[in-house]
Amino acid sequence: MSYNDIGLEYYDPVAHPTCHNFREAGIRLISHFLSETPGEFGKILEIGCGMSIIEEIKPIKISKKSHVVLSDLNINMISHSMNLKSMNIDIVLCDAGKLPFKNRYFDLVISNLGDPYNGRNMWESVNSILHHGGMFMYTTPSIEWANSFRSGRKEISDKAYFQKKDGSDLYLPSNIMTDDEIVKLAEDSGFRMLSIEKFENIHLLKKPISPKLSHGTPFVTLYACVK
């Protein structure tokens, strides 16, 4: 089983409101951080992009001089971004842990909800394709949310549980770590952690709001790193 098995319905806000809320929270966290961090990002990569967030991050201005690459391993996920393909936006099918790009090429790499492929291979691969001073924005469901929610009857600690539209259950990889574990992984991979920011205000989100979220408990975390 892979995210390809949920890809065509993953972004349906009624069927999967938690995914819908997580995605928006990640956009808000990344947008807020980049709005307060000066920098020009001409070469941008979004990994595990699914339905890309690149045009929804207001501080990022895509011009004719920009080179944007959207990548994902699963065709059903990245199919939601095919409408963005253009002269300066490329679409690439690839593994986040084996990124097929030139070393030290990108200014900015974004991973919104990267828990399915979180691990040393991904962190080291991202580091290799960023130039010195390049930034990595990584968001994931928060460990606080995982600890409180994944104790439920149908939940498994290292899996994301989905109930598909046809009523079947699906368990897919989801490696959510503590803040200390992520910091160590990032530093061991050659990054310096700039900021850790958490989103917990469900009242700021567009409806529907998932019943799996509760106001005041962080449910998405941003780890902002620099090489």
UniProtKB/TrEMBL annotation:
Keywords: Methyltransferase, Transferase. GO terms for biological process: methylation. InterPro entries: Methyltransf_25 (IPR041698), SAM-dependent_MTases_sf (IPR029063). Residues 44-134 form the Methyltransferase domain. GO terms for molecular function: methyltransferase activity. This is Methyltransferase family protein. It comes from Nitrospirillum amazonense.
